[in-house]
Specification:
Radius of gyration of chain A: 16 Å
Helix content of chain A: 25-40%
Largest interface: A-B, 19 and 20 residues
Strand order of the largest sheet of chain A: 3-2-1-4-5-8-6-7
Order of helices and strands of chain B: EEEEEEEEEEHEHEHHHHHHEHEH
Strand content of chain B: 15-25%
Distance between the termini of chain B: 32 Å
Number of helices of chain A: 7
Shape of chain B: globular
Structural class of chain A: alpha/beta
Helix content of chain B: 25-40%
Radius of gyration of chain B: 20 Å
Mean pLDDT of chain B: 97
Oligomer: heterodimer
Number of strands of chain A: 8
Structural class of chain B: alpha/beta
Low-confidence stretches of chain B: none
Largest sheet of chain A: 8 strands, mixed
Shape of chain A: globular
Largest sheet of chain B: 8 strands, mixed
Strand order of the largest sheet of chain B: 1-4-8-5-11-12-13-14
Number of helices of chain B: 10
Low-confidence stretches of chain A: none
Distance between the termini of chain A: 43 Å
């Protein structure tokens, strides 16, 4: 699969997480989407929830796609923080399937909670049984949510649901809600093993 | 074969204004004129006008040529024309020469109606706010109540930004390119060196050089050479000239030996022959004085609280004279006012001059933004 196909596959899977994210957003909310890609989440939320949204995107070609989709998009690198945004100036700050590709993971989560009253974070669960199975047979996991080979992956901070729960507890972050999905269906039984996608609604303590 | 993406042969027009213009300095221009050009057709609703604000050495001749024989087209011809990012099939584009300029509008080279003599050094010092007021009158003159967009780079971007404060109801979009909310101390310092080069030229005669039949060419030349150094990036200069020698060997002289020197001298000479020193002084002062946040205790967000336009802010990575950080200050203030704003930081190695270059991604950005403007 080329990178383009991979992106399309990820975007298709994102639709599932988009609908769930939408459920966590109040109508007319002010939303900041970090790593907004082509802006489809914001476009969707604007239609369904009349949100006032901005995207943040580093990549030139994604930036242009977002602009062409009518999204207000700010070009910047998340790694340099969110100093361009006032504290508590957004209702929600979203990081959808980007956490695993961020270098400064801890800082960015805290920045999200500084800028937003709430943060929504979604990421592929590395603890998913299919991933564990691949490791058991001795290979790095490659799946729908992790479509990259070890040598070309942008993902540098993969974690499991258990890891992230602990990260929040240690960082004084309140988990308002947690949702785990596999193939767009909610997973309640052994989520860290059975779930492929983790979604968190967070706030500061 | 004619170039179908060019606006073709254009001719400047002049608009005369008899209603006095109160200037920020306290002085009043009792009457004045502005030279302008237009490209494309104003639609029936008069809703498709885009005004271009020029920078330090710019003018009204933005696109097209004045005659087939012109060596170069207008200064932003790569952006404006049929099918270009700012498409003249859709938009009616207006370029003008600002007050105090030396390309036909009222300025040091024009006649002072009170004395019937050339204004010269007596032409008032004008500010960005004054320009914006005069530009609004030009829009009135053309029967345009609201511009689809105001666009400018560098000092032109400052004018675009100020339109959103002075006349929020008269613009729908503002495009602020390679600009800043005010000049840094370093930038003012560069301007001061340029001004000192002109003012201390023995041929300057306190700005009354016309009366002496001379021009302060040396000063203007040095001012421009300095300017050119700051508009380019170190990398771009290194790429273009490096340490290349004109004659291949060092001659132990103070003549032109390095290609870099040759380029600077050429640019300086060209400019000194074309541009008016009194205008140069005024343009740099307009840059220095621009500081909309000064009215609101340094709070740019408060200064922009009246703005209602949608914004596109663009900066260039290698631009150290109007750095991306300065554009981000503008973006932050616009975000604080919850305005619609997009910001692009274009990777470019041409320094400040990048905003005039036909970089593909930059032009794609401009094209995408102009495409979404409804007329």
């Amino acid at each position: 699969m080329g990178n383009l196909e991979k992106n399309i596959a990820i975007n298709a899977e994102n639709r599932a997480d988009f609908d769930r994210i939408a459920n966590w957003i109040s109508p007319n909310a002010k939303v900041l989407d970090l790593g907004c890609g082509d802006g489809s989440l914001l476009t969707q939320l604007r239609k369904t929830h009349k949100i006032h949204g901005y995207g943040v995107e580093k990549d030139d070609s994604n930036w242009l796609k977002a602009m062409n989709n009518g999204v207000d998009v700010i070009q910047m690198d998340l790694e340099s923080g969110l100093s361009g945004f006032e504290a508590q100036s957004f209702d929600v700050v979203i990081l959808s399937q980007t956490l695993q590709a961020v270098l400064n993971t801890e800082a960015i989560i805290h920045e999200m909670l500084r800028v937003g009253r709430e943060a929504i974070v979604t990421f592929p669960n590395f603890g998913y049984w299919r991933h564990r199975k691949q490791l058991m047979v001795g290979q790095m996991p490659v799946s729908k949510n992790l479509p990259y080979q070890w040598y070309d992956t942008p993902n540098v901070h993969l974690c499991t649901i258990k890891d992230f729960d602990e990260f929040c507890r240690k960082g004084n972050i309140v988990i308002e809600e947690r949702l785990v999905l596999t193939d767009k269906e909610e997973v309640h039984f052994m989520p860290n093993l059975m779930g492929s996608l983790a979604m968190y609604r967070l706030r500061s303590k | 074969m004619s170039d179908t993406s060019s606006v073709g042969i254009v001719a400047p027009k002049t608009a005369h204004f008899n209603e006095p213009l109160q200037l920020k300095s306290g002085q009043v221009l009792s009457q004045y004129h502005l030279v302008y050009e237009t490209y494309g057709e104003l639609n029936a609703d008069k809703s498709n006008a885009v005004m271009i604000c020029h920078a330090l050495s710019g003018h009204h001749h933005v696109a097209g040529k004045h005659s087939e024989d012109d060596k170069y087209p207008g200064w932003w011809d790569n952006l404006i024309g049929p099918g270009k990012p700012l498409d003249t099939n859709k938009f009616f584009v207006i370029g003008l020469n600002n007050l105090g300029g030396c390309h036909g509008s009222s300025g040091p080279l024009s006649t002072n109606p009170a004395t019937d003599k050339t204004w010269g050094a007596d032409f008032p010092i004008v500010t960005v706010e004054d320009w914006v007021n005069s530009q609004a009158r030009l829009a009135d003159y053309l029967g345009i109540k609201q511009l689809a967009a105001i666009l400018g780079g560098s000092l032109g971007g400052m004018q675009a930004l100020h339109w959103s404060i002075s006349y929020p109801e008269r613009i729908r979009h503002a495009l602020v390119i390679a600009s800043a909310p005010n000049l840094t101390a370093q930038n003012i310092a560069f301007n001061e060196v340029a001004r000192q080069a002109i003012i201390t030229d023995p041929d300057f005669y306190e700005g009354r050089y016309y009366d002496h039949g001379v021009l302060p060419r040396r000063g203007l030349r040095i001012a421009r050479m300095l300017g050119h150094i700051t508009y380019l990036s170190d990398d771009a200069m290194g790429e273009k000239f490096g340490r290349k020698l004109r004659d291949g060997k060092i001659k132990y002289s103070f003549d032109v030996e390095f290609e870099m020197e040759s380029y600077l001298r050429y640019q300086g000479d060209k400019f000194a022959g074309d541009f008016d020193a009194n205008t140069y002084l005024r343009m740099t002062r307009a840059l220095d004085y621009f500081d909309p946040a000064a009215q609101t205790g340094g709070d740019l967000s408060a200064a922009l609280s009246k703005a209602t336009a949608d914004f596109l802010v663009v900066s260039f990575t290698s631009d150290w004279r109007f750095s991306p950080a300065r554009s981000r200050e503008i973006v932050k203030a616009l975000l604080e006012n919850e305005l619609s704003v997009s910001y692009a930081e274009v990777t470019a190695d041409h320094g400040h001059d990048a905003f005039l270059m036909p970089d593909k991604h930059y032009h794609d950005i401009m094209r995408a933004y102009f495409a979404k403007i409804e007329v």
